[in-house]
């Protein structure tokens, strides 16, 4: 059984992502590990010599009480979607979010992460600029990131970008396993630029190897890979886009606040970032 880590700040964005996490768990026959990470403020105890410990105990208790109140709400969502048979466990951790995610991955033997891409203060920063690259390169499991406006819909088509490398083939096979479990098809995109060096024989070998599989290969000549990928998602009716993390610059652009509206209109779908 696969184990899926679901970090949550209990925001609306996280609640929306939780639905995707439940449905993904159903697809891969997985269980969920719900993680709520919080950072206590730093105080100089010389200014609070008498009630320093009381102050921290109070803050920790407040986080625990919120955690205790929110978990039943998530379980209710699972019941409403008739997915309450999916096993769920919970972790409440103090400290840096990324550190706690990495710690949970190791201790829980996590196979996937599912999380929303916006939320309360601290979480939005986690997905903006270089921090996006941090999460994609700092963990060694696939991350399904869910935009706050991406309502769940049955996965019928998974997009996959490739450069026809050996590591791309391995990732494509992993995507194909997920696709088969959800009776979906895979549409594979190669953006051929003026400096592309993939040989026709390599492309033919891939097509022959995957013949008979629910995979469709597309090659588009363009030097603007980002817009080509966005158009591919739009016109090929992609429900989830899978990409290797060598595309992390694309993710950074995707989550910049100045581009939020542009991309939300064109790419309001979950993205599965797969590690190289």
Give the arrangement of secondary structure elements.
Blueprint: E1 2-7, H1 12-28, E2 30-38, H2 52-80, E3 88-94, H3 97-108, E4 112-116, H4 123-126, H5 130-138, E5 143-146, E6 157-161, H6 166-181, E7 185-192, H7 200-209, E8 215-221, H8 225-235, E9 240-244, H9 248-254, H10 260-266, E10 271-274
Parallel strand pairs: 1-2, 1-4, 2-3, 4-5, 6-7, 6-9, 7-8, 9-10
Antiparallel strand pairs: 5-10
Helix pairs in contact: 5-9
| Low-pLDDT stretches | 119-133, 257-266
Q: Using only CA atoms, what is the Rg? A: 20 Å
Task: Describe the strand arrangement of the main beta sheet, using strand numbers.
Answer: 3-2-1-4-5-10-9-6-7-8
| Distance, first to last CA | 23 Å
Brief overview, please?
The chain has helices spanning 12-28, 52-80, 97-108, 123-126, 130-138, 166-181, 200-209, 225-235, 248-254, 260-266, and strands at residues 2-7, 30-38, 88-94, 112-116, 143-146, 157-161, 185-192, 215-221, 240-244, 271-274. With 276 residues, the protein is α/β, with parallel strands linked by helices.
């Amino acid at each position: 059984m696969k184990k899926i880590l679901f970090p949550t700040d209990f925001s609306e964005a996280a609640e929306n992502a939780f639905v995707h996490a439940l449905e993904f768990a159903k697809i891969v026959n997985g269980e969920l590990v719900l993680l709520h990470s919080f950072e206590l403020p730093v105080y100089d105890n010389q200014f609070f010599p008498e009630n320093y410990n009381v102050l921290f105990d109070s803050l920790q208790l407040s986080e625990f009480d919120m955690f205790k109140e929110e978990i039943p709400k998530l379980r209710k969502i699972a019941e409403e979607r008739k997915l309450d048979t999916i096993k769920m466990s919970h972790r409440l951790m103090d400290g840096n979010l990324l550190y706690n995610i990495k710690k949970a991955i190791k201790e829980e033997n996590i196979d996937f992460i599912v999380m929303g891409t916006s939320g309360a203060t601290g979480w939005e920063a986690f997905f903006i600029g270089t921090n996006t690259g941090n999460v994609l390169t700092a963990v060694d499991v696939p991350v399904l990131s869910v935009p706050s406006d991406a309502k769940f819909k049955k996965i019928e088509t998974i997009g996959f970008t490739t450069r026809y490398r050996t590591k791309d083939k391995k990732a494509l096979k992993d995507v194909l396993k997920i696709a088969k479990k959800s009776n979906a098809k895979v549409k594979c995109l190669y953006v051929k630029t003026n400096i592309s060096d993939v040989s026709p024989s390599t492309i033919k070998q891939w097509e022959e190897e995957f013949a008979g599989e629910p995979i469709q290969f597309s090659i588009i000549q363009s030097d603007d890979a980002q817009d080509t990928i966005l158009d591919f998602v739009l016109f090929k009716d992609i429900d989830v886009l899978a990409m290797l993390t060598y595309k992390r610059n694309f993710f950074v652009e995707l989550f910049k606040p100045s581009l939020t509206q542009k991309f939300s209109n064109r790419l309001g779908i979950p993205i599965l970032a797969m590690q190289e």
